[in-house]
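writing this on my phone so excuse typos. first protein, seq and then structure
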Amino acid sequence: MSFKVLIIEDEALFADQLEMLIDKLGYELLGITDNSTAALQLMEVQVPDLILMDIHIRGKHDGIELADLIHQQKFIPIIFITSMQDDLTFARASRTNPVNFLLKPFNDIQLQRSIELTVQQLNQQTTSSESDKTTNKQTEAEWENDFLFADHFFIKTRQQLEKLAVNDVIYLEADGHYCRVHTHSKKFLVRMSMVELLKRLPAKDFVQTHRSYLVNINKVESVDLKENEVILAKHRIPLSKRNRDPFLKKLDWI
């Protein structure tokens, strides 16, 4: 799953620059528009993961007013891009809680770092949402409404960020300072320990079967108690003695 970006910019020169940068960085461009009405219409069709938005845009609302309207429906990270440097504009924009505020002109690395910082914030929100669900004992409805990124996380592969649905992950395999994330269609080698990556995954769905393996409990097809292996599609994952009882208890088999 790709990282989707929406550009809202009324200056053609900067809109073209943003488009080229997004393409160069390997993200998916959801669309480009220069006015608030068209932006809202685009988001009714598909929700972006990130919005790059000028403050001075065409239409009924300026960028700051549009950000308020968007966040009334759903939190979507916004990076404001503007040539306006006055304190009043910055104060107004700050009240909408943007993830960053870039001044024109900007370069490739500034935009890339802004986006990567946003992804880190998304992952942190996912982690804290799972923790809050457990400690505060919220209802399922409150959980779904309050935390909007609990169904996915982002993995950096080379110079790209890939959006990965939690439900697509079959199992994780520790490999020193790296971790292999296995899905049905591909696998990712991530420079991150299993402990660190686990922080980005919902505890209710993932359980350890071995010191080097973590499985998506929703993908378990059977357990070979004789061979101490967990079967997930074509994969056979070791089940250690230490993890056997906690794992079976998680399955409600004990």
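second protein below, same order as before
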Amino acid sequence: MKTNYWEKLEPDVIYHIYNRTVGKDNLFNNDGNYQFFLNQWKTYLPYLDVYAYCLMPNHFHFLAKVKPVDAELGKHLDEQRTKKSQQFIEGEIPYSEYLEDQFKRFFSSYALAYNKQQDRHGALFQKRFKRISVIDEYKLHYLLAYIHHNPLHHHFCHAYTDWKYSSWSAYLNLHQPSLLNREEVLSWFDADMKKAQERFLKYHEDFRIDKKMENETFEDD
């Protein structure tokens, strides 16, 4: 069955979300670009519970779950004051359409700032970001490691543990605060957090690309 790379974003569903630049252009050129990208994500997309991410010079990956709209998100929604936010509040469009618009605003905000800084012109991102729902437990485990190993896969580093623009280090330092939902992720490995972290780390250490998964789930980045 052909993979649908542009699924609707629905509450309580986990997605593999990724996108890349047009052509062979860079998406990030310095540390500040990476940090600004994450800051803009938090600004525009608090509607997603992030489990893992990796930012690389020309593309990115996120594993995240769409949150239902609660009181806190409702406040953020009211503050957006966009056409789409008003349409969603009034019940004229579904949540998925509003979220797609938030992603567009997120990409646009980053591209405008990046283009200005780099004295660059034209589109930065591919037009449609890919999002594939993930339900199967094996795929969830696989994607965690796949995302953290991606810089190694694309020869951006010699060891995935050395890449500083991913969520990997957040799982090494559980005592430090993080916006990631680490407890839920680790609960996939064991109910005991210490054992869960050990199994999480061992799974990453033993990880190998599954060619069947690659063919069924991913396009070339």
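Residues 95-118 form the longest helix (24 residues). thats all i got for now
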